[in-house]
Amino acid sequence: MTYLDKAEQTLQRLRDEDRYRQLPERQLGADVMDFSSNDYLGMAKDPQVVEALRHATRAGSGGARLLAGRHRELSLLEEELAGWIGRERALLFSSGYTAAVGTIPVLAALVETILSDRSNHASLIDGIRLSRVPHTIYDHAELPQHSRWQNALVVSETLFGMDGDAVDAAALLETLRDDDILLLDEAHALGIAGPQGAGYARELRDSRIVVLGTLSKALGTLGGFVAGPATAIDLLVNRARSFIFDTALPPALVLAARVALHLTRSAGDRRERLRANAMRLRAILRQTQDDTRDDTAESDTPIIPIVLGSEECALQISEQLMKRRLYVPAIRPPTVPPGTSRLRVSLRANHSFEQIDFLGAEIRRCIATS
What we know:
By secondary structure, the chain is of the alpha/beta class. The chain folds into two domains: 28-45 and 268-369, Alpha-Beta Complex (Aspartate Aminotransferase, domain 1), CATH 3.90.1150; 58-265, Type I PLP-dependent aspartate aminotransferase-like (Major domain) (Aspartate Aminotransferase, domain 2, 3-Layer(aba) Sandwich). The chain is built from twelve helices and twelve strands. The strands form three sheets. The protein has a seven-stranded mixed β-sheet, sandwiched between helices. A three-stranded antiparallel β-sheet has the order 9-12-11. β5, α6 (169-174) and β6 form a beta-alpha-beta unit. α4 (96-108) crosses α7 (230-239). It starts with a helix and ends with a helix.
């Protein structure tokens, strides 16, 4: 049996389990309302952000940051990001994923063990696996217990991308000992939570905290970063393989991100509209009398999970919504645990109330008839 035969067997098992994925054949048309994007503030299409890209004088950065990829725009953005979220320094990576898988092994080498929330993103899980340090998975949104260990790296998202709930970052910090490290992934929180959208960790001034972030969600561009004490950032420059050996971000994208960051800091009106959209849709969905579950029913975050259970049910309802020009993706294992397949609604500030009302009514109709 060839490797292609084995690959086809694997693919067939995924089809049988309703877990097969394929790339869409075409982009979403203008007639389809998109409720899948993490562009929470609508920055990806903001005219000022798009205009910044047109000022590019080159398409690529030319190499890794420590070699040819040295550009002033990178340093300026790092200074602005660090100031925004209240950290000494920041370091840019080519994506949030590379930031996670590069940072965690470096920090893990300084401790005895890792404690990780069960619902953490795959990039955090992969970083933990790469570290080869003993680790423990604690129940989602619970406070970790680590009295057995002399010191630990605690890893958690602040706003969970598939569950839509926020951790109590201050309470998490209180569990730390003096020589512990707390890595907070603010990917989904930056831009929408905290003063000036600077995230849940902004007011927690503690040198034990290291923050992961991304430019590809509320900032609407591309890239990732890590922010924290200057010594920790210096160590990443010297040890994080996904930084040292990866090509630097192109200056044009960095300039666009700087513009997006400037707009985000003063986007209080967009944040308020986003919260209003989230609360409006949740109010509509609370009227649905069935066995679906949204643990964030009283929240105002823009991520709304509608847990349906089976992969088949989630796919069927997602397809029914698409027929009504509503794109709400079905999320299935391994992205979420078995038995918790769901619709993941992701709202934006530029969704209208009319669109929200239509979406809510159609979700209720599809669930009632499924």
